[in-house]
Amino acid sequence: MSENTTQQTQTASTDDRSPTDDRSPTDDRSPTTTAGETVEQTREEWTEYEFRGETKMAVEDLDVHYGDDHALKGVSMEIPEKSVTALIGPSGCGKSTYLRCLNRMNDRVSSARIDGSVTLDGEEIYQDGVNLVELRKRVGMVFQSPNPFPKSIRENIAYGPKKHGDLDTGLLARLLNRSDADERDELVERCLRDAALWDEVSDRLDDNALGLSGGQQQRLCIARCLSVDPEVILMDEPASALDPIATAKIEDLIDDLSEHYTVVIVTHNMQQAARISDQTAVFLTGGELVEYGDTDQVFEDPHSERVEDYITGKFG
């Protein structure tokens, strides 16, 4: 074969490749996006999670825009009651936006536009006339950084029930020979015990809550959330600012809470998600829910190549 013929054959072989395939002829790896994710088409069945028990909250075709930014795209998933659902994914993938949609916290963002359906016990929370105070009482939120009120430990717990009128029993308390203070103190003790904090603060309930350690402040915020008797507890990276010992206490607490409450938690710590959750939802670049299922399945045998790459640290 002549040198000219050889060159033509090599050129034809190179030109036969897809115009979107910029890999070398010997590179059989899947193409990736600029974010480092493998290019793939998400399949519906990857997010169709069948679980035992009742659905507490359901989201269907949820889209969220912040101005021109499309933060969530067509997300649909059901959240089972009395369990822990973990939301994981790289920064900017929309998991915190999704969390805030569950009690309409995004209503406070002027540029936000929400389309789709979110239900709590089958009732649409985005319909006209929904009482947002009552909704956020039923669906409480614990934020990333502890934010106790600059009040006593006791008042941090009692503040919410007093605002809702749950402690102002007045005449009934007097007829039962009980004072509002008795009822308040019982509530404070119960919530602090439920948040695994009572033994550490029972002798200083009138101290300012800002004097507590970071881990104690976060557990106090969880106790404050419990004081209004929520049904769902949303947690946005509740242990990200805490040391390993405080983090372990929060994780143990979440496990205990799931016996009585529906817990939805955003975390960047994949080991934490694997330890504490019953089911895991994986959001990836572009606000897309890519996979949702039993936590063991998602971490050990994910359907999506992108999810496997994220979990094994190839990007994110």
Automatic annotation (TrEMBL):
Q: Which UniProt keywords apply?
A: ATP-binding, Cell membrane, Membrane, Nucleotide-binding, Transport
Enumerate the spans annotated as ABC transporter domain. 57-311
Q: Which PROSITE patterns match?
A: ABC_TRANSPORTER_1, ABC_TRANSPORTER_2
Q: Which terms does the UniProt entry file under GO BP?
A: phosphate ion transmembrane transport
Species whose genome carries this gene: Halorubrum californiense DSM 19288
A Pfam family found in this protein is: ABC_tran
Does the keyword field hold Oxidoreductase? no
Q: Where is this region: Disordered?
A: 1-44
Task: Quote the cellular component terms of the Gene Ontology held in the record.
Answer: membrane
Basic and acidic residues: which segments have biased composition? Answer: 14-30
Composition bias (Low complexity) maps to 1-13
Task: Show the GO MF annotations.
Answer: ATP binding; ATP hydrolysis activity; phosphate transmembrane transporter activity
InterPro entries given in the database record:
AAA+_ATPase (IPR003593), ABC_transporter-like_ATP-bd (IPR003439), ABC_transporter-like_CS (IPR017871), P-loop_NTPase (IPR027417), PstB-like (IPR005670)
This protein is called Phosphate ABC transporter ATP-binding protein
Domain of life here?
Archaea
